[in-house]
Write a structure and sequence with these properties.
alpha+beta; about 65% helix; about 575 residues; 5-stranded antiparallel sheet
Length: about 575
């Protein structure tokens, strides 16, 4: 990685931050004797805000367009990122009292709204000599399947095919897809709105920078701790505890992974345990994926048990107002049952590998590992370990502090590098999995395009139509659709799309007020992420680290090992939810 690449990455981040500052549209106040302020919000059919929607005020059936520099008329006003708009129009008292005011909202991939009549009220206030009148409106738009919808769908399916059959590297496939979507928007879309898929600003807003920065910060912390030799030492201790029984060792690693993932996010857990696992596999002379794939599955299973264990849970808890205890009480029992099933499953799938890795002279091997894998820098371990514990504490308290987990990770990374006097440039070049981070960024953009054009909305509408008020069917549909969808696309953007749908179903379906559909969404999104190599963040990061170390697993190989237990976990979840609720 060259320094220029870092500059480009930082530029993207800064652009995203600046774009996120745009929370509402406000037209510059026009001084005059009478000003009409029209404000409101543009929404889609599920109540989600629509950014970059064109807002056109009308007076007596004629559009009132804003004027740009040089008195050139613009196309229309636009909503901000949260769908809000505020238009200030200088006018006469006669127009305010007797004129017929209206509003029309349009947006690519949506059916234009009808002319919405506006009721004008005297606000009774004056600002800078201008007497203010006010009107408000909330406008919902209906999605249509435009050319942009089909282009985004073809690109989305194409990317999945490229990744699934390893026609090209997954990062390049996602990179190419995101670039094509943006290029279509700014070429064909310049001449015809039907080709507008998503804008540059919308693309940046689709990226979950909290996830990106969390990964970056934890990669740096783990990179520093690696220098101390702690992971090699943990490999030795793990083998010593198992006493040469490889199945017991693999089972213990799964339990530990699931437990840690419940209190850390699963990505952080795998960042910590992957180096240990690679060392164990190296000593036993077996493929690391004999241990890594079960650990990935266990991390996603364990992370489902708590509010902070998996990003979809964090999003669900925040949106629905669910507490840490709510998740523990409702999800921990099914997680424990699934974990037991996974340990049994491992015996059938990896039994021959465990047998080949069996060590005949266990005491001799333990002595060898004890001599070879030692703590090489205790001071660095003490400093880095202390900072890591502090970061973990901040993870647990992040809800109370109202602080994103990425803030804790970045602060911990910076503090660790400073106190340990490490070379930051070397850490950035060697320890950060840039290919994984770029893959996530581009995948967020591609999925964002699927959301902008209504591809994901098709799934949500289908769920609503199929259920028809039957709670048991809604539980099954939400769980299994979430499971399969999260295996195909990253479960974070999928969960974000489903949140308002579940909120609507909770009101529309009798008995859903118990919250069972929230648990169906959480179990489906988290467990379904195990289905493929791109289904969850932990999958991508872990396989990326292994690939960098010289061990690669294909998309189909991962799915062959992970898909059966994923289906088993969804079956167990279905029985649990139907029996309990």
């Amino acid at each position: 990685m060259k320094p220029g690449f870092l500059h480009v990455f930082l530029f993207l981040v800064l652009s995203s931050v600046l774009s996120c500052c745009d929370t509402t549209l406000a037209i510059t106040t026009v001084q005059g004797h009478n000003v009409l302020v029209i404000q409101g919000k543009a929404l889609d059919s599920t109540g989600n805000p629509l950014s970059a929607a064109n807002v056109t005020p009308f007076l007596n059936g004629k559009p009132l367009l804003p004027v740009a520099e040089g008195n050139a008329p613009e196309k229309s006003y636009e909503t901000g990122l949260n769908g809000l708009f505020r238009v200030e129009i200088p006018t006469t008292l006669e127009s305010l009292k007797s004129g017929k005011w209206g509003l029309k909202v349009t947006r690519p991939n949506f059916k234009p709204s009808q002319l919405v009549p506006l009721k004008v009220l005297d606000d009774g206030t004056s600002e800078e000599g201008a007497h203010r009148w006010i009107s408000s409106a909330s406008v919902q738009l209906e999605r249509i399947r435009s050319r942009a919808f089909w282009i985004a769908l073809v690109v989305f399916i194409g990317i999945y095919v490229l990744i699934a059959f390893e026609i090209m590297h997954r990062t390049l496939a996602a990179f190419l897809g995101a670039a094509v979507l943006l290029m279509v928007t700014y070429t064909f879309g310049h001449f015809d709105d039907a080709y507008k898929i998503l804008t540059y600003e919308q693309a940046l807003h689709c990226v979950d920078w909290n996830v990106i920065f969390l990964l970056m910060g934890m990669m740096i912390i783990v990179g520093v701790l690696k220098v101390s030799g702690v992971f090699q030492w943990l490999a030795y201790k793990s083998f010593q505890v198992a006493r040469g029984d490889i199945y017991v060792l693999a089972s213990a690693l799964c339990v530990v992974t699931a437990f840690i993932s419940a209190f850390l996010d699963n990505v952080t857990t795998m960042l910590l345990l992957t180096p240990v696992t690679l060392e164990i596999a190296l000593v036993l002379k077996v493929s690391p994926f004999v241990f890594l794939v079960p650990e990935i599955l266990a991390s996603n299973f364990g992370g489902t048990a708590t509010l902070i264990g998996d990003p979809p849970n964090i999003m669900i808890g925040s949106y629905a107002g669910l507490t840490f205890n709510d998740f523990v009480i409702n999800l921990t029992p099914v997680v424990m049952a699934v974990l037991v099933a996974q340990i049994i499953y491992n015996k059938f799938v990896y039994g021959s590998d465990y047998h080949r890795a069996k060590v005949e002279d266990t005491p001799k091997m333990v002595s060898f590992l004890k001599e070879k894998y030692r703590i090489t820098d205790s001071k660095l371990l003490y400093i880095g370990g202390s900072v890591l514990l502090g970061v973990i504490a901040l993870f647990v308290l992040h809800g109370f502090l109202r602080m994103e987990v990425s803030v804790a990770a970045l602060f911990g990374a910076a503090l660790t590098v400073l106190l340990c006097r490490m070379d930051i440039v070397e850490l950035l070049e060697k320890e950060i999995e840039w290919s994984s981070l770029i893959f996530f960024i581009m995948l967020f953009i591609v999925v964002g395009a699927a959301e902008q054009t209504g591809i994901l909305q098709v799934i949500a509408d289908w769920i609503k139509d199929v259920c028809q008020g039957r709670l048991w069917l809604a539980v099954i549909v939400v769980l299994w659709v979430s499971g399969f969808a999260s295996a195909i696309i990253d479960n974070i953007p999928y969960t974000a799309t489903m949140l308002p749908i579940i909120a609507f179903l909770n009101k529309a379906i009798p008995g859903a007020e118990s919250g069972v559909l929230w648990w169906a969404l959480a179990l489906g999104a988290c467990f379904g992420g195990n289905g493929t190599i791109i289904g969850a963040s932990a999958n991508v990061v872990t396989t990326g680290i292994a690939e960098k170390a010289g061990y690669k697993i294909t998309f189909l190989e991962f799915m062959k090992q992970a898909a059966p237990i994923t289906i088993i976990s969804l079956i167990i979840s279905t029985l649990f939810l139907l029996v309990r609720y």
